[in-house]
Amino acid sequence: MKKILLIEDNPNVLQNTSRMLQAEGYMVITANNGRQGLEMAQQQIPSLIICDIMMPEIDGYGVISALRTNPATTAIPFIFLSAKSDKTDFRQGMELGSDDYLTKPFTRDELLGAINAQFKKQDIINSYYRQELDNLRGNISKSLPHQLLFPAIEVMGLADILVKNYHAMEAHEVPDIGKRIRKAGRNMHEMVKKFLLYAELESTENSTEWITQIRNSKTTFVDIEIASCAKKTAEHYNRNADLVIDIQDAAIQISDSYLNTIAKEIIDNGFKFSPEGTSVSVSGSSDDKEYCLSVTDHGQGIEPEQIASFGAYMKFEKKLYIQQGTGLGLAI
Which end of the chain is more exposed for a tag (fewer CB within 10 A), N or C? Predict the structure, then answer.
């Protein structure tokens, strides 16, 4: 049953409208002023809110402003009821995030039509996000097991060789196998870290505490941080000679770890998908408002339509190019 919160200081309108909605099968909760309505909205999380504008303590504009800043209530459909029919009043309500606006007196059909329209719109939005979530789950289920499977097989295979044949091995062979096991283990570790980081970013992107924390972070010596990351990445691919660095120093509002992660993923992508012997240029510059990090390579590139459909766990042109990794680097 859909739950509707009705906020109205006129007792007759409150009672009559409440009865009308109950007769249509809705669960109705009521509040007779803005402050009480705001508290009930945050406690009950209704499916839709119908709110008068001119009310004591907190008016309708104050109610919707508070609700739209709270992640738990920001997406709740909101309909204004008001005797004020001036165009400026209507625009003010819509600009604050109202989904519809009915002027008093209103008819039963007008009110029910507005409510049904909002629920239909909400169903379309929910259907879209359910599809997106299903796609994400499908991509995860396909990507994660396969990406972890190959290094796990390598670790088990090499360990099996050691267990069964250690007595017949030459002295130099054992350290070589140990290095290969360590490399495969590190690959698995990096993959798991990447999945966990992406999950963390997804789960905290609407957290006001997290957003405040990261906005208060700061990195100084940006040139040293990015240059160090670029050199390590080039060394990993044995392409030190291909790296070109031109980075200005600055102090920017991001943590050292997040800056390092961003730089590492973009620079790694440049080396991974470009031929050996071609340059990978890493440059950084700043003005009064922003810092621009640019990585340029001479690889296969990404088409505009691919960028438009970009998302997590996605790999492009898999039939044409062999691609390793999780498909999370650029998404992160």
Answer: N
